[in-house]
Protein backbone atom coordinates (compact mmCIF):
# COMPACT_ATOMS: atom_id res chain seq x y z
CA UNK A 1 0.00 0.00 0.00
CA UNK A 2 2.79 2.39 0.95
CA UNK A 3 4.61 1.61 -2.31
CA UNK A 4 1.45 2.23 -4.36
CA UNK A 5 0.87 5.59 -2.68
CA UNK A 6 4.48 6.57 -3.33
CA UNK A 7 4.13 5.66 -7.02
CA UNK A 8 0.88 7.62 -7.36
CA UNK A 9 2.43 10.66 -5.66
CA UNK A 10 5.56 10.60 -7.83
CA UNK A 11 3.59 10.05 -11.05
CA UNK A 12 1.38 13.02 -10.08
CA UNK A 13 4.48 15.20 -9.61
CA UNK A 14 5.79 13.94 -12.96
CA UNK A 15 2.54 14.87 -14.73
CA UNK A 16 2.61 18.32 -13.12
CA UNK A 17 6.23 18.92 -14.21
CA UNK A 18 5.47 17.80 -17.76
CA UNK A 19 2.43 20.10 -17.92
CA UNK A 20 4.54 23.05 -16.70
CA UNK A 21 7.11 22.37 -19.42
CA UNK A 22 4.39 22.28 -22.05
CA UNK A 23 2.12 25.11 -20.90
CA UNK A 24 4.72 27.61 -19.64
CA UNK A 25 7.40 27.07 -22.29
CA UNK A 26 6.73 24.95 -25.37
CA UNK A 27 3.07 25.49 -26.31
CA UNK A 28 2.95 29.32 -26.14
CA UNK A 29 5.90 29.44 -28.53
CA UNK A 30 5.02 26.58 -30.87
CA UNK A 31 8.08 24.48 -29.93
CA UNK A 32 7.92 20.71 -30.22
CA UNK A 33 9.40 17.85 -28.29
CA UNK A 34 9.97 14.40 -29.74
CA UNK A 35 7.59 11.46 -29.68
CA UNK A 36 3.81 11.49 -29.33
CA UNK A 37 3.89 14.80 -27.47
CA UNK A 38 5.65 16.36 -30.46
CA UNK A 39 3.04 15.00 -32.89
CA UNK A 40 0.24 16.40 -30.72
CA UNK A 41 1.90 19.83 -30.59
CA UNK A 42 2.48 19.81 -34.38
CA UNK A 43 -1.17 18.93 -35.08
CA UNK A 44 -2.31 21.58 -32.61
CA UNK A 45 -0.22 24.21 -34.43
CA UNK A 46 -1.42 23.14 -37.88
CA UNK A 47 -5.14 22.91 -37.08
CA UNK A 48 -5.34 25.50 -34.28
CA UNK A 49 -7.08 23.05 -31.96
CA UNK A 50 -6.62 22.25 -28.27
CA UNK A 51 -3.58 20.01 -27.82
CA UNK A 52 -5.21 18.09 -24.96
CA UNK A 53 -7.55 16.33 -27.41
CA UNK A 54 -4.76 15.55 -29.85
CA UNK A 55 -2.62 14.19 -27.01
CA UNK A 56 -5.24 11.54 -26.22
CA UNK A 57 -6.08 10.76 -29.86
CA UNK A 58 -2.48 10.35 -30.98
CA UNK A 59 -1.74 8.18 -27.93
CA UNK A 60 -4.49 5.65 -28.68
CA UNK A 61 -2.58 3.59 -31.32
CA UNK A 62 0.45 3.43 -29.03
CA UNK A 63 -1.68 2.42 -26.05
CA UNK A 64 -3.13 -0.42 -28.17
CA UNK A 65 0.45 -1.60 -28.72
CA UNK A 66 1.04 -1.26 -24.97
CA UNK A 67 -1.93 -3.56 -24.30
CA UNK A 68 -0.19 -6.36 -26.21
CA UNK A 69 3.41 -5.65 -25.16
CA UNK A 70 3.38 -4.34 -21.58
CA UNK A 71 1.87 -5.54 -18.34
CA UNK A 72 -1.71 -4.63 -17.49
CA UNK A 73 -0.49 -2.64 -14.49
CA UNK A 74 1.77 -0.45 -16.65
CA UNK A 75 -0.97 -0.12 -19.29
CA UNK A 76 -3.57 1.09 -16.78
CA UNK A 77 -1.18 3.54 -15.12
CA UNK A 78 -0.14 4.86 -18.54
CA UNK A 79 -3.74 5.43 -19.68
CA UNK A 80 -4.57 7.28 -16.46
CA UNK A 81 -1.34 9.33 -16.66
CA UNK A 82 -1.92 10.42 -20.27
CA UNK A 83 -5.54 11.38 -19.58
CA UNK A 84 -4.49 13.27 -16.44
CA UNK A 85 -1.82 15.18 -18.39
CA UNK A 86 -4.36 16.10 -21.08
CA UNK A 87 -6.88 17.29 -18.48
CA UNK A 88 -4.32 19.41 -16.62
CA UNK A 89 -3.08 20.99 -19.87
CA UNK A 90 -6.66 21.76 -20.86
CA UNK A 91 -7.64 23.48 -17.61
CA UNK A 92 -4.44 25.03 -16.22
CA UNK A 93 -3.69 28.67 -17.01
CA UNK A 94 0.07 28.99 -16.62
CA UNK A 95 1.45 32.01 -18.41
CA UNK A 96 4.62 31.95 -20.48
CA UNK A 97 7.46 33.42 -18.40
CA UNK A 98 9.95 34.20 -21.18
CA UNK A 99 10.12 34.79 -24.92
CA UNK A 100 13.81 33.90 -25.19
CA UNK A 101 13.85 30.97 -27.60
CA UNK A 102 16.96 29.36 -26.15
CA UNK A 103 15.56 29.46 -22.60
CA UNK A 104 12.25 28.09 -23.85
CA UNK A 105 13.94 25.13 -25.54
CA UNK A 106 16.19 24.36 -22.55
CA UNK A 107 13.76 24.81 -19.68
CA UNK A 108 10.81 23.37 -21.60
CA UNK A 109 12.88 20.25 -22.22
CA UNK A 110 14.08 20.21 -18.61
CA UNK A 111 10.59 20.26 -17.08
CA UNK A 112 9.14 17.88 -19.67
CA UNK A 113 12.07 15.46 -19.32
CA UNK A 114 11.84 15.51 -15.52
CA UNK A 115 8.12 14.78 -15.71
CA UNK A 116 8.40 11.95 -18.24
CA UNK A 117 11.42 10.46 -16.46
CA UNK A 118 9.74 10.48 -13.05
CA UNK A 119 6.65 8.87 -14.55
CA UNK A 120 8.63 6.12 -16.33
CA UNK A 121 10.62 5.45 -13.15
CA UNK A 122 7.34 4.68 -11.39
CA UNK A 123 5.97 2.33 -14.03
CA UNK A 124 3.91 4.50 -16.38
CA UNK A 125 4.39 5.97 -19.85
CA UNK A 126 3.56 9.54 -20.88
CA UNK A 127 4.95 9.25 -24.41
CA UNK A 128 4.09 6.37 -26.73
CA UNK A 129 7.24 6.39 -28.86
CA UNK A 130 8.93 4.16 -26.26
CA UNK A 131 6.09 1.64 -26.66
CA UNK A 132 6.58 1.67 -30.45
CA UNK A 133 10.29 1.05 -29.87
CA UNK A 134 9.54 -1.97 -27.66
CA UNK A 135 7.06 -3.37 -30.22
CA UNK A 136 9.43 -3.08 -33.21
CA UNK A 137 12.34 -4.40 -31.16
CA UNK A 138 10.33 -7.52 -30.29
CA UNK A 139 9.24 -8.08 -33.90
CA UNK A 140 12.26 -7.02 -35.96
CA UNK A 141 15.14 -6.89 -33.48
CA UNK A 142 15.87 -3.20 -34.18
CA UNK A 143 17.07 -1.42 -31.04
CA UNK A 144 14.57 0.79 -29.18
CA UNK A 145 16.97 3.75 -29.40
CA UNK A 146 17.18 3.51 -33.20
CA UNK A 147 13.40 3.28 -33.54
CA UNK A 148 12.87 6.40 -31.41
CA UNK A 149 15.63 8.24 -33.30
CA UNK A 150 14.06 7.42 -36.68
CA UNK A 151 10.60 8.31 -35.36
CA UNK A 152 11.79 11.74 -34.27
CA UNK A 153 13.86 12.31 -37.41
CA UNK A 154 10.64 11.98 -39.43
CA UNK A 155 8.77 14.23 -36.97
CA UNK A 156 11.36 17.02 -37.04
CA UNK A 157 11.66 16.81 -40.83
CA UNK A 158 7.90 17.28 -41.09
CA UNK A 159 8.15 20.20 -38.66
CA UNK A 160 10.79 21.87 -40.84
CA UNK A 161 8.56 21.49 -43.90
CA UNK A 162 5.19 22.36 -42.34
CA UNK A 163 6.24 25.05 -39.84
CA UNK A 164 9.80 26.32 -40.21
CA UNK A 165 13.39 25.15 -40.10
CA UNK A 166 14.04 27.40 -37.08
CA UNK A 167 11.21 25.82 -35.08
CA UNK A 168 12.52 22.37 -36.05
CA UNK A 169 16.05 23.26 -34.88
CA UNK A 170 14.86 24.58 -31.52
CA UNK A 171 12.61 21.53 -31.18
CA UNK A 172 15.61 19.24 -31.72
CA UNK A 173 17.39 21.11 -28.91
CA UNK A 174 14.32 20.61 -26.69
CA UNK A 175 14.31 16.90 -27.55
CA UNK A 176 18.01 16.53 -26.65
CA UNK A 177 17.51 18.25 -23.28
CA UNK A 178 14.39 16.19 -22.60
CA UNK A 179 16.18 12.93 -23.40
CA UNK A 180 19.15 13.74 -21.19
CA UNK A 181 16.96 14.73 -18.24
CA UNK A 182 14.88 11.54 -18.65
CA UNK A 183 18.10 9.52 -18.43
CA UNK A 184 19.12 11.39 -15.28
CA UNK A 185 15.74 10.85 -13.65
CA UNK A 186 15.73 7.12 -14.43
CA UNK A 187 19.40 6.27 -13.89
CA UNK A 188 20.23 8.83 -11.22
CA UNK A 189 22.72 11.66 -11.07
CA UNK A 190 25.65 9.48 -10.12
CA UNK A 191 27.58 7.83 -12.91
CA UNK A 192 29.57 4.63 -12.52
CA UNK A 193 32.22 2.97 -14.64
CA UNK A 194 33.62 -0.54 -14.58
CA UNK A 195 37.33 -1.33 -14.77
CA UNK A 196 39.17 -4.53 -15.68
CA UNK A 197 42.82 -4.25 -14.64
CA UNK A 198 45.62 -6.50 -15.91
CA UNK A 199 48.92 -6.10 -14.10
CA UNK A 200 52.01 -7.86 -12.76
CA UNK A 201 51.16 -6.30 -9.39
CA UNK A 202 47.54 -7.33 -8.97
CA UNK A 203 47.73 -7.93 -5.21
CA UNK A 204 49.20 -4.49 -4.48
CA UNK A 205 46.76 -2.64 -6.77
CA UNK A 206 43.82 -4.56 -5.32
CA UNK A 207 44.86 -3.69 -1.77
CA UNK A 208 45.20 0.04 -2.58
CA UNK A 209 41.88 0.19 -4.46
CA UNK A 210 40.16 -1.07 -1.34
CA UNK A 211 42.16 1.14 1.04
CA UNK A 212 42.31 4.44 -0.89
CA UNK A 213 39.27 4.44 -3.20
CA UNK A 214 37.04 2.28 -1.02
CA UNK A 215 36.00 0.18 -4.00
CA UNK A 216 34.80 -3.40 -3.89
CA UNK A 217 36.79 -5.73 -6.15
CA UNK A 218 36.51 -9.17 -7.69
CA UNK A 219 39.53 -11.17 -8.83
CA UNK A 220 39.22 -13.37 -11.91
CA UNK A 221 41.65 -16.09 -12.94
CA UNK A 222 42.92 -15.55 -16.50
CA UNK A 223 43.97 -18.81 -18.14
CA UNK A 224 46.46 -17.23 -20.55
CA UNK A 225 46.75 -15.00 -23.59
CA UNK A 226 49.04 -12.70 -25.51
CA UNK A 227 49.93 -9.08 -24.77
CA UNK A 228 52.70 -6.47 -24.63
CA UNK A 229 54.82 -8.83 -22.53
CA UNK A 230 54.31 -11.72 -24.96
CA UNK A 231 52.60 -14.98 -24.08
CA UNK A 232 50.78 -14.78 -20.75
CA UNK A 233 50.48 -17.52 -18.16
CA UNK A 234 47.68 -17.81 -15.61
CA UNK A 235 47.14 -14.40 -14.02
CA UNK A 236 44.56 -12.71 -11.80
CA UNK A 237 42.44 -9.90 -13.23
CA UNK A 238 40.83 -7.17 -11.11
CA UNK A 239 37.20 -6.28 -11.84
CA UNK A 240 35.77 -3.26 -10.02
CA UNK A 241 33.07 -0.57 -10.26
CA UNK A 242 33.81 3.01 -9.18
CA UNK A 243 32.04 6.36 -9.16
CA UNK A 244 33.15 8.44 -12.16
CA UNK A 245 34.23 11.17 -9.73
CA UNK A 246 36.94 8.76 -8.62
CA UNK A 247 38.26 7.93 -12.08
CA UNK A 248 41.32 10.22 -12.14
CA UNK A 249 42.35 9.27 -8.63
CA UNK A 250 42.04 5.57 -9.52
CA UNK A 251 44.17 5.89 -12.65
CA UNK A 252 46.81 7.85 -10.73
CA UNK A 253 46.86 5.18 -8.04
CA UNK A 254 47.32 2.35 -10.56
CA UNK A 255 49.97 4.38 -12.37
CA UNK A 256 51.94 4.85 -9.16
CA UNK A 257 52.09 1.06 -8.70
CA UNK A 258 52.40 -0.22 -12.28
CA UNK A 259 52.73 2.17 -15.22
CA UNK A 260 52.42 -0.74 -17.65
CA UNK A 261 49.09 -1.94 -16.27
CA UNK A 262 46.50 -2.65 -18.97
CA UNK A 263 43.08 -1.16 -18.09
CA UNK A 264 39.72 -1.64 -19.81
CA UNK A 265 37.10 0.95 -18.86
CA UNK A 266 33.41 0.46 -19.66
CA UNK A 267 30.10 2.13 -18.81
CA UNK A 268 27.88 0.64 -16.12
CA UNK A 269 24.14 1.22 -16.51
CA UNK A 270 22.90 -0.04 -13.17
CA UNK A 271 24.33 -1.59 -10.04
CA UNK A 272 22.73 -3.07 -6.96
CA UNK A 273 24.36 -4.37 -3.81
CA UNK A 274 28.10 -4.80 -3.42
CA UNK A 275 30.56 -2.15 -2.28
CA UNK A 276 30.76 1.15 -4.15
CA UNK A 277 30.81 4.82 -3.22
CA UNK A 278 27.69 6.95 -3.49
CA UNK A 279 28.91 10.52 -3.30
CA UNK A 280 25.41 11.98 -3.01
CA UNK A 281 25.32 11.04 0.67
CA UNK A 282 26.93 12.32 3.86
CA UNK A 283 29.35 9.39 3.95
CA UNK A 284 30.24 9.81 0.31
CA UNK A 285 30.86 13.53 0.57
CA UNK A 286 33.38 12.94 3.35
CA UNK A 287 35.44 10.85 0.92
CA UNK A 288 35.85 13.83 -1.42
CA UNK A 289 38.40 15.41 0.90
CA UNK A 290 41.93 15.64 -0.62
CA UNK A 291 43.97 12.47 -0.37
CA UNK A 292 47.31 11.22 -1.59
CA UNK A 293 46.13 10.23 -5.05
CA UNK A 294 43.70 13.08 -5.79
Tell me what you see in this structure.
- The protein is of the alpha+beta class.
- The protein has two domains: 2-187, no CATH class; 192-286, Alpha-Beta Plaits, CATH 3.30.70.120.
- 62% of the residues lie in helices and 12% in strands.
- It contains eleven helices and six strands.
- α3 (51-69) packs antiparallel against α4 and α7 (144-162) packs antiparallel against α8 (165-187).
- It is elongated and about 70 Å long.
- It starts with a helix and ends in an 8-residue tail after the last helix.
Low-confidence parts lasting 5 or more residues at pLDDT below 50?
A: 284-294
Beta-strand segment tally: 6
What is the ordering of alpha helices and beta strands? HHHHHHHHEHEEEEHEH
Query: Radius of gyration in whole Å, from Cα?
Result: 24 Å
Q: Structural class of the helix and strand makeup?
A: alpha+beta
Number of helices: 11
* Major sheet: 4 strands, antiparallel
Question: Structurally, how many domains make up the residues?
Answer: 2
Outline = elongated
CA-to-CA gap between the ends?
46 Å
Strand content: 5-15%
The amount of helix comes to 55-70%
> How confident is the prediction overall: mean pLDDT?
82
Summarize the structure.
By secondary structure, this protein is α+β, with helices and mostly antiparallel strands. Helices cover 62% and strands 12% of the residues. The protein is built from 11 helices and 6 strands.
Amino acid sequence: MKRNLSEVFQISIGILLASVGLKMFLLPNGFLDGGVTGIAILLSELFDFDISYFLILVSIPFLILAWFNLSRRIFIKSVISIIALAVIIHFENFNAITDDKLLIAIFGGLFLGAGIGLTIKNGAVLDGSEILGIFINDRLGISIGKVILLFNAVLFSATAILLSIEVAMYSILTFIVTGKVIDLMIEGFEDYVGLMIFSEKVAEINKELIRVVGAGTTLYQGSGGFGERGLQTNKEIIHTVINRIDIRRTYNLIDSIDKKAFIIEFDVNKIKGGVYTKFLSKEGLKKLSPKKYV
